[in-house]
Write a structure and sequence with these properties.
- By secondary structure, the protein is of the alpha/beta class.
- It has one domain: Rossmann fold, CATH 3.40.50.
- It has helices at about 35-40, 60-75, 95-105, 120-150; strands at about 1-5, 5-15, 20-25, 45-55, 80-85, 110, 155-160, 170-179.
- It has a 3-stranded antiparallel sheet, with no helix packed on it. It has a 3-stranded parallel sheet with strand order 4-5-6, sandwiched between helices. It has a two-stranded antiparallel sheet with strand order 7-8.
- A hairpin with a 5-residue loop joins strand 2 (about 5-15) and strand 3 (about 20-25).
- The radius of gyration is 27 Å and the shape is globular.
- The two termini are about 50 Å apart.
Length: about 180
């Protein structure tokens, strides 16, 4: 869908027969004029594909700028994959070297894709989703556990407790049982 100079689409990605993931995909094409719009899109983001055109020259600084942008607006917990696009074209070998070296040094996956040939596009999304899903499951379980812990209540009972010093010294006290 065309929207203010960037594309967005919602898609369902099937990981297995029983597991589907809903994706909200935003493509700002990395244009500087949409940078203020893209900042608002970062909210709630769990993963990001940072794409670079393999047919153009690229510097390490360009990659660092985008990773800094992601870290600044999302944080380190966001799963990141560097994607080289247009692998079917006249590829700039230096760009591939720069992306590969950067990915290895920064422990980020680098995937070369071709939308024209359909090469690795599905794999790039699948890889990213498989990094995100376990983290979201753990977070969901932690939140559920926290909710259950906060909803535990104490049942107050009146109970006669015998004093250890004498059996005749009986006082009425409240005690609690954790449900």
């Amino acid at each position: 869908m065309k929207n203010s100079g960037f594309d967005s689409v919602t898609a369902t990605f099937r990981l297995s027969e029983s597991q589907k993931v809903k994706l909200n995909i935003w493509d700002t094409a990395g244009q500087e004029k949409y940078r203020s719009i893209s900042r608002s899109l970062y909210r709630g983001t769990h993963g990001i594909l940072i794409c670079f055109d393999l047919t153009k020259s690229l510097t390490v600084e360009s990659i660092k700028i985008w990773l800094h942008e992601v870290r600044q607006h999302i944080g380190e917990e966001c799963s990141k994959v560097i994607v080289g696009t247009k692998s079917d074209g006249a590829v700039n070998e230096e760009t591939i070297r720069v992306l590969t070296t950067f990915a290895v040094e920064n422990k980020v996956k680098f995937i070369q894709t071709s939308a024209l040939e359909g090469t690795n596009v599905y794999f790039a999304f699948e890889f990213l989703i498989k990094k995100i899903v376990p983290r979201l499951r753990k977070r969901r379980m932690d939140m559920l556990k926290e909710k259950i812990d906060s909803q535990r209540s104490f049942v107050i009972n009146k109970k006669r407790l015998a004093s250890r010093s004498t059996a005749s010294n009986i006082s009425e006290q409240r005690c609690c049982a954790l449900l």
